[in-house]
Amino acid sequence: MKIAVTGVTGYIGICFAKWAVSEGHEIVALSRRRPELVACDWIPYELSSKQALALPIDTDAVLHLAMIKSPNDQLDGAQEVLAAGLLVQAAQKVSAKFIFVSSQTARSDAPTAYGRIKWRIEQIVLAASGWVVRPGQVYGGMPRGLFGELVKLVQRLSVLPAFMPAPKVQPIHVDDLAAGLLRIAERADIRPGVLCLASPEPVSFTDFLHAIARNRLRLCRCFFPVPALIISTAIRLVREPLRTRTGLERLRSLFDLTVMNTASDLQRLGLQLRPLSSGMHPAGSARRRHLLVEGHALLSYVLRAQPGNAMLGRYVRAIEKLRGGVVLALPGPFVWWPALLALIDRGNRTETAWDKEFLWRLDAATVLAEASPLGARVFLGMGERDGFMGSLFWIARAIAFEASWRILSVSFAPITRVVLPRALAERQ
Amino acid sequence: MKPDFDIIIVGSGPAGVSVAFPLVDAGLRVLMVDGGKKPGVLPPEADFLSARTNDAEQWKWMVGEDFHALKKRDAVSPKLRVPSHAYAFEEFETRNQVVGKNFITAGSLATGGLSNAWGCGVARFSAEEMADFPFPATELDVSYARVSQRMGISGKVDDDMSDYFGLDEYSQSPIPLDALHTHLSQRYLNRRKKLNSLGFRLGRSRVAVLSEDVAVRQACNLSGNCLWGCRRHSMYSSTDDLLGLRKHENFSELSGFVVDGLTRYDGYWAAEGQTTSGGELRSITAGKIVLAAGTLATTRIVLKTLNHRRPVPLLSCPTAAFLLWLPRLLGAPRTPGFGLGQLSFSLDIQDNITAFGSTFATTGITLSEFVRHVPLRRRYGIDLLRGLLSSCVVGNLFLPGHLTAAEAELQSDASLSVTGKYCDAVVPLMDEAAKKLRKAFWSLGAVLLPGSFTVGRPGGDIHYVGTLPMRESPSPGETSPRGEVEGLDGIFVVDGACLPTLSEKSHTLTIMANADRIGRKLAACNESRQGEVS
After folding, report:
1. Closest A-chain CA to B327
2. Which of B500, B130, B494, B113 lies closest to B315, judged by CA?
3. Which end of chain B has fewer CB atoms within 10 angstroms, the N or the C?
4. pLDDT tens across A15-56, in order?
5. Is the CB of residue A317 less than 8 Å from the CB of residue A416?
């Protein structure tokens, strides 16, 4: 499919474009500058333009993500609505689906201008039989958008406010949202209308911040209670533009959120959202994080050095692509001290299915580790002059270490032969 | 009705281009069709070791963005794991409906066929080796000369392998040896007599790799990228010959068309098949059809057209590989060098059985390829090889093709099933070969590393031959001395399928020479007919 996207360089836009391209779709970026992060066609486009736009004739869908940042004055709002109208017309001209990503706060009587503008655009889109998506609290991936600000905040402040009573948010991982948006574009059986995409179970805002601290940043953060009443009073007393400057405007939206019923929409799209604790990991999921840990252990064992992020990413992608993304479940000590893998690594002897899989992954780690300048240095001694003595040293050293590990393996046999298989069986 | 072409050649590999030249030169309207696979991943630009040292993106050509090398982890040869060669092998079995049972079946749908990823080994079959060919060995002389000169062969030197290869009169000077091979060949000169009495002869490998520039192809610059692909086109690929064929107006090409069957009409033939891109069915007609699709694919087409349901024999060379260590050169610096066969040997094992093999530098091969076979923990296996491998060369060994008992049989679903195993004699022969090689190389100062001599899996040589052998008086399922299929007048087989015997030597050059011979015969036959008409 050919999908035209506004706001392709934004938080959701990048994730969507990458996902769509990897699924074999073609992206046409409607943006001011040519996007660099994704391979796509480009049509120069300004949200502030009052001119009609011509889309490629074979465009199948238009995804409208762009917005004017902090549209406070009436003028910006009107322009944003006008731009959306022009886009809808352009999509109609080429008979493309129109998908608009709105906001949970969209309401005709929303307390913020943001929410009211989104509502006005929604009306235009719905009138043109388009699709409106109201995502919950988007998180994960590159820390950008509101999520990015929250991550920064949690990073900076060691004590965080816990509003009482706490506002509720309905999180959705940015990759899950991207997948949902693509499904709307792809599928013919989703009727036009409003779709609410977020976790059906709201979590308290405090828990959300806590998840950022613990799972994303691996930091310990204290919370002190702040009565929500104080904030709502402050919001009422402070006037624009001070409200925006102090961030109170953002909080205002937060306090105004009503719970969305998302279960039926998720079901219609067949979209299964990852749990917050899993999605909040920088890797995007707990499974992927475990694969990174596994890759780190195996690559460090092979390289005797830290594998770079790029190499780790390759390992994870290879396992996801060729081994169904299944985690090997190495017990902790092997992860903390990769050298200990010498206890499990028994050359080419494979007795159980787990042994075989371990050997496959060790081979994969060896191949991936070698295919790098670091690998060339470690495996071939490139850039170092080993010479006769040096080579002799490496050979002697290898044999000495191998012998020691063989002796150690015998003494550790009760652990490696009995305890370890049991631990592995349990973990699986 | 006038057919679309005089001749359709199925396949653009070494056999296809070799048969094409004489036909095109004779003015016949020739169409060449092939599976149309084209290279995707480019080999490194810099020499191998520089690329390894500096190229942060080396994983793209070493492993592949689709992790090709990992996908093919269990493939028989490192070559099958190289991302830049993936296109040469992909989809061959599915598209051509070839199924190997306990037998490796490889082939190519690429333009240029398997010559995109071959070892460039060339040799001439001796008169004895051609005893079972239904024509005098001298009939191939002209063809050997024509084909060798067109390909560009190097390795000309007066040594103990000169007669064995029999190609020096058409060859360029040899490509320089690396330090390890220089050491081996010097030691050999001092111990020749003793080794010859053991039945061991050593000399330069004769390879279809340029040591001098020829037209657009450049001479080998010892970049060490042989395994990964040569940007200089020093290594022969039949795609290089396509440039020459395209100069002729009477030569046409249809790339991306896999022939599935042949149908006879009144006085002409139709090649029927599918396009690889759209799966569109097509039928193209010609007076004659020449099959050069590679032994397995050609065999299936012929058996299907004949509706021949009995198994046909398949010859394939049993193989082995081994690692030699030269202790005197321990710690030799890794230097870029030629990555294909540098020295070749012949080894008499029994009265009438000779083994052939070559030795290669280990520099251009990844260490991962070796470390899997080292019986050490991975971390220490790597350390061991880091010290050891720069003073090692790797060798291979081939036995004559009749020592594999294999068969190809057309199944009811029109697929070709290939089964086979080594003959019982192979185990003792390999043991004997290992023993003799250990002894021979020991006296050359090289240790055949214990446990490294590994016998390959049946079919792993990818030297498949003899399913539709040329015979003086062919029975059904065989071919005439011109490669014409018995019972299918106008259908000719010019690839490995029609060779009646397979010696231990590299067989590609002989396939090419035979294709050239058949091409010249067809061209001559056409001329005489034209003569009759006028």
Report:
1. A388
2. B500
3. C
4. 999 999 988 899 999 998 888 877 788 998 988 888 888 899
5. no
B391 with A391: Cβ contact below 8 A: yes
Which of B71, B367, B387 has the CB atom closest to A386's CB atom? B387
A343: contact with B, CB 8 A cutoff: no
B386 to A386: CB separation less than 8 angstroms, yes or no: yes
Q: Give the strand pairing for B319-325 and B392-398.
A: antiparallel
Cα distance from B334 to chain A (closest Cα, Å)?
A: 8
Task: Please say whether the dihedral angle defined by the alpha carbons of residues A385, A386, A387 and A389, taken in this order, is positive or negative.
Answer: positive
Query: How many other C-beta atoms can be found within 10 angstroms of the C-beta atom of residue A240?
Result: 12
Q: Which residue has the tokens 């003494």?
A: A411
Mean pLDDT of B209-216: 93
- Cis bond upstream, residue B400 (ω within 30): no
From chain A, pick out residues whose CB is under 8 angstroms from the CB of B67. 317-318, 321-322
b/e code B119-155 from CB counts within 10 Å (16+ = b): bbbbbbbeeebbeebbeeeebbeebbbbbbebbbbbb
pLDDT in tens, B317-339: 999 999 999 999 999 999 889 99
Strand, coil or helix: what is B351?
A: coil
Burial class (CB in 10 A: 0-12, 13-18, 19+), A373: middle
Amino acid in position B480: S
Give the SS3 label for residue A229: helix
Contact present, A140 and A280 (Cβ < 8 Å): yes
d(CA B350, CA B347): 9
pLDDT digits (tens, 9 = 90+) for B161-177: 999 999 999 999 999 99
Torsion angle of C-alpha atoms A74, A78, A83, A85, degrees rounded to 10: 150
Cα distance between residue B275 and residue B278, in whole Å: 6
B449 min Cα distance to partner chain A (Å): 14
CA-nearest residue of chain B to A300? B379
Flag the least confident range among A232-236, A243-247, A383-387, B453-457: A243-247
The owner of tokens 């109201």 is: A134
Question: What is the distance between the alpha carbons of residues A71 and A121, in angstroms, rounded to a whole number?
Answer: 14
Q: How far is A2 from chain B (nearest CA, A)?
A: 20
Q: Does A312 touch chain B (CB under 8 A)?
A: no
Tell me the C-alpha to C-alpha distance, in Å, between residue B4 and each of A198, A237, A281, B271.
63, 89, 64, 11
Using a CB–CB cutoff of 8 Å, tell me whether A391 touches chain B.
yes
- Inter-chain CB proximity A301 and B378 less than 8 Å: yes
Kindly determine whether residue A380 and residue B382, on different chains, have CB atoms separated by under 8 Å. Answer: no
Contacts of residue B374 in chain A, CB cutoff 8 Å? 347
Is the Cβ–Cβ distance between B288 and B477 less than 8 Å? Answer: no
Task: Return the residue of B nearest to A303 by Cα.
Answer: B379
Per the CB < 8 A criterion, the answer to whether A10 and A146 are in contact is no
Using a CB–CB cutoff of 8 Å, tell me whether B371 touches chain A: yes
Left if phi > 0, otherwise alpha if psi is -120 to 50, otherwise beta: which for B211? alpha
| Arithmetic mean of pLDDT, B144-156 | 96
Q: How far is CA B523 from CA A245, B144, B529, B530, in A?
A: 88, 18, 10, 11
- Provide the β-strand partners of residue B361: B393
Tell me how far apart the alpha carbons of residues B150 and A209 are, in angstroms, rounded to a whole number. Answer: 73
Say if strands A193-197 and B98-101 run parallel, antiparallel, or are unpaired: unpaired
Residues in B touching A346 (Cβ below 8 Å)? 377
Which H or E run contains A242?
helix A242-245
A305 reaches B (C-beta below 8 A): no
Q: Which tokens belong to A28?
A: 């046409």
